[in-house]
Amino acid sequence: MENTIQQVAVSRLVAHPDNPNRMSGSTFAKLVRNIERTGRYEPLIVRPYRRKKGRFQIINGHHRLEALKKLGKRKAAVIVWDVDDEQTDILLATLNRLSGSDVVAKKIALLKRLTEKMNARQLARLLPQTPGQIKKLIDLNMPKFPAPASGGPQAPANAMVFFLTDEQKKVVEDALSLAMPTKPARNAAALTAIARHFLDTASQDNTRNEDQIRTA
Questions:
Q1: In a domain? residue 148
Q2: Would strands 44-48 and 101-102 be described as parallel, antiparallel, or unpaired?
Q3: 110 and 87 in one domain?
Q4: Which is nearest to 19 in space by CA: 51, 48, 62?
Q5: Using CA atoms, how far apart are residues 150 and 103, in angstroms rounded to an integer?
Q6: Structural domain span for residue 185
Q7: What does the alpha-carbon distance between residue 6 and residue 171 come to, in Å, rounded to a whole number?
Q8: What does 72-83 look like in DSSP terms, one character per residue?
Q9: What per-residue confidence (pLDDT) applies to 94?
Q10: Within this chain, do residues 60 and 37 fall inside the same structural domain, yes or no?
Q11: d(Cα 89, Cα 109) in Å, to the nearest integer?
């Protein structure tokens, strides 16, 4: 019965506040288009929501639910799992890693909660990260970004975490210093400049290839 697909009203589905997964606007738009075009999607994984009888808390499928709402769907296909809080935290840290990306602060909160009950080596058997990566994430000091100026645009910063070898770290640092030599402290802007250059170059290469195909 646990893996039986059920149809549940979207109004009865509650998002988990500690879901660490986020999807870009463009990727979400593709998700909406795919569901609209095919009418198919992977059933949401939920559990009984103990705070409100008759409702279910989402473990996996937050973006699918939002896509269904956007399409005006009144019901969603779900699979109900009867799992406790600890199992839910593990599932949030694994299932949701398969698409989108993590909000680092929430991922760290999940890992810290899990390490109260098991060590990093035990967790690494269940999660995508290695024991070393789990320890680094837990010890990570999240930077505090200054609030935007009054009246200015609200642009919250997003943290991205990479685990690099010494050689990879040196290559990245050298590239960042070349991208923004006068302001080396602005690594985010430098990294964005490198990424934008890569995208522009790839776009130019694609255009040249298309031109060559047309003239062949």
A1: no
A2: unpaired
A3: no
A4: 62
A5: 26
A6: 166-215
A7: 51
A8: T-SEEEEEE---
A9: 79
A10: yes
A11: 10
CA–CA distance, 80 with 182 (Å, rounded to integer): 55
The answer to whether residues 108 and 58 belong to one domain is no
Beta pairing, strands 44-48 & 75-80: parallel
Per residue in 60-95, pLDDT (tens digit) is 999 999 999 999 999 999 999 999 999 898 888 877
Diameter of the chain measured on Cα atoms? 66
Is residue 159 included in any domain, yes or no? no
Same domain, 13 and 95: yes
Report the predicted TM-score, pTM, of the whole model to 2 decimal places.
0.54
Residue 181 forms part of a structural domain: yes
- Whether 176 and 195 share a structural domain: yes
Residue labelled with tokens 């899990």? 114
Helix (H) or strand (E) holding 63: helix 62-70
Q: How far apart are CA 101 and CA 110, in angstroms?
A: 15
What integer pLDDT is reported at residue 127 of this predicted model? 72
Overall number of domains in the chain: 3
